[in-house]
Structures are given as C-alpha cells and as structure tokens.
Design a protein that fits this description.
- The chain has a four-stranded antiparallel β-sheet with strand order 4-6-7-8. Strands 1-2-3 form a three-stranded antiparallel β-sheet, with no helix packed on it. It has a two-stranded antiparallel ribbon with strand order 5-9.
- The two termini are 19 Å apart.
- It is α+β, with helices and mostly antiparallel strands.
C-alpha cells in the first residue's frame, strides 16, 4: 500500500481486489465507504481519491473531484452513476466511483 503520509498513515487496506473494483479502507479504526455505496440524493464530502493511476486522478481532478469537495449521486444505472459536483453533472463508471472515498 502506498502512503501519502497524511490520510493513509493509519489506514488498513481490507480488500484490494474486490468485485467491481470496489475499494474499502478503514481510516483511524472506522469504516469509510466509496461512491458506489452512497445513497441517492445525499450530499457527501470527498475524503480522498484512492487510486495509484495518475491519469484517473488527474481526470477526476479536472472534473472538480478532490478532497473536501461535496458530491451527490443523482442516479445509478447498471454500470455507471450520475454525480453532481459543484454545478455540473457527470456520468462516471463504477471503477471511477470506487476510487472516490466519501
């Protein structure tokens, strides 16, 4: 596991290869969920982007998706979900949603 020295210092990776690329972390002893687990219409604050893929990280950053930003899942379909970030809506797949820890 890669440590950024701030959020993940006390993190434990539970299951790195879970079905549908869902990633779960225990941060400071409590369960933290990703965007695939979010309730529809509920606003969450992004805690971190959990990926080692720099291209994915920069793509999400270009959408305005980074730590501290509010995000809402508007609707969910079979393999993707529509999220609201700032004043825009984006259709993202499950892999991108799994990397967004809320």
């Amino acid at each position: 596991m890669v440590s950024n020295g701030k959020n993940r210092r006390n993190s434990t990776l539970i299951s790195p290869h879970q079905k549908d690329a869902e990633i779960y972390y225990v941060l400071r002893g409590r369960y933290t969920m990703n965007l695939n687990d979010a309730e529809l219409g509920h606003e969450y604050i992004i805690k971190e982007i959990a990926t080692n893929d720099e291209e994915m990280t920069s793509f999400l950053f270009s959408l305005g998706c980074y730590s501290g930003e509010p995000i809402t899942v508007v609707t969910r379909k079979k393999n993707n979900c529509v999220v609201s970030i700032k004043d825009a809506r984006y259709n993202i797949d499950k892999e991108l949603a799994a990397a967004i820890i809320i």
